[in-house]
User: Fold TLCD2 protein from Anseranas semipalmata.
Amino acid sequence: SPRRFCLYPELHKDLVGTHPPGAHSLVAVSVGYFLEDFVDMLCNQKLHQSWELLFHHSVVIVCFGIAVLLHQYVGFALVALLVEINSIFLHLRQILLMADLVHTTCYRLNSIVNLGTYVVFRITTLAWMTRWLLLNRQHVPLATYAVGTVGMAIMTPMNIILFYRLLRSDFFK
Assistant:
């Protein structure tokens, strides 16, 4: 979180080997969450409805799993978790849709906050992470760099497509 960067300024310089207390546990718990959600989707949803999220979760599980197992890149994974702040509003949107509350002030307000947090916490964070990877290529082993680059190459278009769908659905009907 931004507060963590203020409390642990060394994170600015080293997202590979440095991380604040509790960060490793947070990333490990996040792997567990993504694994549980992955299994839940496999068991309770049709594949054609959930394949994108299953794919997303697979990438996150691999990338975060590497950070947890190696005790490296935990700082980078911590930055990646900023993306999940927007998930609150994406999930609230789904709940409001299921409750047939699309034509309410609550839904409209959530749509605006959802889009704002999407840009700040998804698009900006993914762009920053991609930039960090490119600028720090010489400090990252080739295999890890490849995993990170492939992960970003998958996540960025997926998030741009979802952003377009949200815009189209909630603002350009």
